[in-house]
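pasting for ref
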Amino acid sequence: MLSVLRALARLPLRTLHRLGTVLGWLGYGLSPGYRRRLDDHAAVAGLDREQRHLAVASAGRMVAELPWLWLRPPDLPLAMLAQWQGAERIAEALDRRRGLVILTPHLGCFEVCAQAIAERFGERARLTVMYRPARQAWLRELQRTTRTRPGLEAVPATLAGVRQMIRALRRGEAVGLLPDQVPPEGMGVWAPFFGRPAYTMTLASRLVQQTGCALLTIWAERLPEGRGFVLRVAEPAGLLPAKGSDLAAWQLACASAINGEMQRLIGQCPGQYLWGYHRYKQPRRSALDDDAEQAP
């Protein structure tokens, strides 16, 4: 399988995106469960037929571009394909040395965001991102080796990974999170997302509250015909609520505010959101419990 991925990584991005369009429609046509979920989520958000069709193709392009993103030749920097809007916001936040949390939804080419940030700002401050290890051993190793690059460190979604993120922020570095990813049980609250309760992580707001770091959002619009990506950096439309005596109420308010911010970003390009993601599912068993069981 790895040899196939390496061969795909040598193809032009334009070719991969064309293959991905076919792959997206094959997945949509051959998987009734995936098709129902994508259609249901898109309907909840009010997408029209054209936007839903764009989302089907976009999901396939996301899968097809992964080999290129993970295994492309080292002499092919992202700077050749990445256009920036608002990069100065990241630079200003890092200059303050208070740490920075960067949030991005499953929108556009979200995998490219971390690599692009590390490539541009890694010499100034390393970026730490959290990922969920795959079940397959070969894919788990590929995740670990390809997502860790100069200026970029990938940590697993465990208690140890959370601690690494806190240490990174206290060193004045940056942390990246996907706040619309369903967290393990015990690491989130049920908050509205496009009007439907979704289990939403509390980690982002806890990191900001504990360290006093800055908070920004980013998403990468996928340009047509493999022409690259536009990375759009912005400040959240509103501040996170101040922590009060009622911890549960504060966590719900923060999760609701972050979900609202993600909805605002998704509204900029709904045809590139990953509507087929199982956003409203029940959370899995907490990785923090696994850590506790393995502790001596």
